[in-house]
Amino acid sequence: MPNAAYRHFASRQDLLQAVRAAALAALAQAIETELAALDVAAPPADFARASLRAVGTGYMQFALAEPGLFRTAFSVPDELEGVPVPDKAGDSGLNPYQLLGAALDRMVAAGVLSAAHRPGAEYLAWSAVHGLSMLVIDGPLRMVATSPGQAHEIGRRLLDMVEKGLQAAGDPPG
């Protein structure tokens, strides 16, 4: 019965939102898996940097492993701000955007990222990692998806760039 799922939702949009929420929760769980592998005994600055990398790595690995769910997670416009929706969260209760925010907050607390550079840093980091993910799964970098080593290396270099760029954001040139 192709229409069976529709019986459980008031509209096609409600069905899509439910699937989207499940996809975002799966993405959050992939990020949480990377975060759980970190050494919590590491010095705070190292742990903070590793947290940002873990968020980016989990995000990109999810995109490569689950491209259909990844596309679905971002198929409908959504509000970033406001009351968190538990259906879009991982086991921590945080959604992917909040996990990124928490990693950036750790960087500020550890003195790795200036508090002056913190506002809006989510948008910069997210757009870079999301952009690469989309280019690899649906764009001209599709061939990278067939080489996990190459995908990992490009992702690592992007995360280096994001970290350094966030730390330098707002610094005067020269």
From TrEMBL:
Domain named HTH-type transcriptional regulator MT1864/Rv1816-like C-terminal: which ranges? 52-149
Gene3D superfamilies according to UniProt: Tetracycline Repressor, domain 2 (1.10.357.10)
What stretches pass through the bilayer?
none
Q: Which UniProt keywords apply?
A: Transcription, Transcription regulation
The reply to whether Transcription figures as a keyword in the UniProt entry is yes
Q: Does the keyword Metal-binding apply?
A: no
The chain's coiled-coil residues are none
Q: Which domain of life is it from?
A: Bacteria
Q: What is the name of this protein?
A: TetR family transcriptional regulator
